[in-house]
Amino acid sequence: MNDPKPMGSVAELLLNYVSTTHEHDVNFSIAVTMLNHYRELGSMSAAEIAELCHVSNASISRFCRHLGFDHFKEFHHYLGDSINMSTDYSRSFFDMLCADRWAAMDRYQQQLSENIQSTFARENLDKLPEMARILHDSRRVAFFSHHFLWDIGRHMQNKFLVMGRCIEQYFDYSFQLECARSLGPEDTALVCTVGGSYPTRYGNIWSALQNNGSRLLIITQNRSSAYWNNASYVLNCGSTNQNDVGKYSALLAADLLVMHYLRQYGRDFF
């Protein structure tokens, strides 16, 4: 089983690299140049990109390996699968946005409201105290996600750390796989996947989570998936991800979990 190495798009890999690296060396310069010419990269050869970046072909190959790809060809392959705006917004919504922006905003608001109401359902809220207890009692907690949900993981890391609970999160595919393989029965994996596609996209990581004996807590809209059969709890984060509204209810679900952890264990940190 070969999982996609970029857990999102190549653009996100480059942006994350530029935003987090402390060394403004030749690799940093290559990444910045690639971002400034990102839409052109898919039609360019390694030699053309090297000329654009004012480096050698070997430097481009080394940079691709530095990002986690085996070689330039693999990097170039994933450029073709890059996420574009049609991934997030439907054509009908775009047409409505151009023709009548107020109608488009009304539809968007309605979708947001439906997700918020679904996330606040009593049967959903009733799961939170026990989920908070599991997070508190675990030896290790690791957050698994991809694409925009990384930001939700980082938000949870910050909030929980203030309350003395360290949550691990890794942006790189190889580190997520290594983390999944290292967890055990005393640990918890918190998987955030709005549409429920994480297990199918990253089968090697999911298999490791299934085999390591750790507890599974899931945040998703796809509550009926057979992948969650062994999960301790599945927390709903709404009912629709049309026009990319699912990320807001996923953040809401994460915040509700933070609030209940605060209620049960955060008195000394308030």
User: Can you tell me the CATH superfamily of the largest domain?
Assistant: Glucose-6-phosphate isomerase like protein, domain 1
* Proportion of residues in β-strands: 5-15%
- CATH second-level architecture of the largest domain: 3-Layer(aba) Sandwich
Largest sheet: 5 strands, parallel
Integer count of domains: 2
Output the CATH topology of the largest domain: Rossmann fold
Alpha carbon gyration radius:
20 Å
Oligomer: single chain
Give the number of helices: 16
Topology as a string of helices (H) and strands (E): HHHHHHHHHHHEHEHEHHEEH
In the sheet with the most strands, the strands line up as 2-1-3-4-5
CATH class of the largest domain: Alpha Beta
Distance from first to last alpha carbon: 46 Å
Average predicted confidence as pLDDT: 92
Protein name: MurR/RpiR family transcriptional regulator
Domain HTH rpiR-type: 10-86
GO molecular function: carbohydrate derivative binding; DNA binding; DNA-binding transcription factor activity
InterPro entries: Homeodomain-like_sf (IPR009057), HTH_RpiR (IPR000281), RpiR-like (IPR047640), SIS_dom_sf (IPR046348), WH-like_DNA-bd_sf (IPR036388)
